[in-house]
Design a protein that fits this description.
By secondary structure, the chain is mainly α. It is 63% helix and 2% strand. It has helices at 2-8, 12-46, 68-78, 89-105, 137-144, 146-156, 160-191, 196-203, 211-214, 216-229, 254-279, 293-315, 323-350, and strands at residues 116-118, 121-123. The chain has a two-stranded antiparallel ribbon with strand order 1-2. Helix 4 (89-105) runs parallel beside helix 11 (254-279) and helix 10 packs antiparallel against helix 11.
């Protein structure tokens, strides 16, 4: 760390903050771009077809289609940027950033590895250090703001398909947020705090002590709600080729569409990291009490990418619900289940468990 600080001509604490900014935001952004390739290759594998395999570096190095995200990025960057004549142009430009920034910032409090000491100073593996006063309330709050990006994109487009998609997406997010929040509140209650580090520490390194074992019902509710929050199939009602075309992003193209698409994958990464942190011990390594720093980072990445893959897997395996089924599941199934989970664990705590 001292070498990095010397290279940047600053203090070790500032150098570490810069490094964390690059690691967290650069990492999530890069993974989101790569996951567009994983989505296509996964869909092709599940549907028994080839998938992207033509884009090649320098026209020769194909590397199983991994150059496709680069080709997509170049295409979006140079594509003509069209704005509908009757759109609200200021909000039309602003909406992609309102969707993308909250999706990227949700990762800020999640520890992606074990803290370490260097030169007598403790360095934490999260952009915001533990004990910042926001804890896991921060990703829930910042994630809730993503609905504004979708709604503003829909309204500013002045297109009936867009507004229908935006209303569907916002109604879905609001409907599932209550059930999701109650599942998380139960974890706060049993962990004795809402700081991510406290939640990870309370789970320990033994897999049977993780919240997936202690609160399986809460996990089912939270996991299901994450699909609605990220607008992923089977809850992807913000779009519908046969009903409302591309929904809230019907009128978007070039880099603005690219930002809207990337925001979905950034949400997916943050949701996967939240599942790993809340229910699977975060950076804890199974059966290893004090893992090395890099081992803890690898453990966290492995868990996060596994759940990111599950999002892809389910998208290309399950059919879509109808919209009334989506609302029924949110209000009459997920919400009562999350309340029952909360009451049950409150009762157990009152009995001294």
């Amino acid at each position: 760390m001292d070498k990095l600080a010397s290279l940047l001509h600053t203090t070790p604490a500032t150098a570490w903050m810069v490094a964390k900014l690059v690691i967290v935001f650069g990492g999530v952004f890069s993974l989101a771009a790569v996951w567009t390739w994983v989505e296509r290759r996964g869909a092709a594998m599940i549907q028994d077809r080839i998938g992207p395999n033509r884009a090649a570096l320098f026209g020769k190095i194909k590397i199983i289609g991994l150059a496709q995200p680069v080709a997509d990025g170049i295409k979006f960057f140079f594509k003509e940027d069209l704005v509908p004549h009757d759109a609200n142009k200021a909000l039309f430009w602003l909406a992609p950033f309102l969707a993308f920034v909250p999706a990227l910032m949700g990762f800020a409090v999640i520890p992606f590895g074990r803290s370490f000491v260097s030169g007598g100073q403790t360095y934490h593996m999260a952009l915001l250090d533990p004990g910042n006063g926001m804890g896991m309330l921060y990703p829930l709050a910042i994630g809730g703001m993503a609905v504004y990006g979708v709604l503003v994109a829909a309204w500013s487009s002045n297109n009936k398909w867009s507004i229908l998609g935006g209303m569907r997406a916002s109604a879905t997010m609001v409907s599932y947020e209550i059930g999701m929040s109650l599942a998380v509140v139960t974890i706060f209650m049993t962990a004795g705090g809402y700081d991510p580090s406290d939640i990870i520490t309370s789970q320990g390194h033994l897999p049977w002590a993780w919240n997936i074992v202690r609160q399986p019902l809460g996990f089912v509710v939270f996991f299901t709600c994450m699909f609605a929050e990220t607008n992923r199939l089977p809850f992807d009602f913000a779009e519908g080729e046969s009903e409302i075309v591309a929904g809230f992003n019907t009128e978007y193209g070039s880099m603005k569409f690219s930002l809207l698409a990337l925001s979905e994958y950034c949400h997916l990464m943050t949701a996967s990291a939240l599942i790993a942190t809340l229910y699977f011990g975060g950076w804890q390594v199974p059966f290893v009490k004090d893992p090395a720093v890099m081992l803890s980072v690898a453990s966290f990445l492995l868990k996060m990418l596994f759940f990111a893959w599950v999002f892809v897997w389910i998208r290309w395996t399950l059919p879509r619900f109808r919209y009334d089924q989506l609302m029924h599941l949110g209000w009459k199934v997920m919400l009562p289940l999350s309340m029952a989970n909360l009451v049950f664990h409150a009762w157990r705590m009152s009995q001294g468990h």
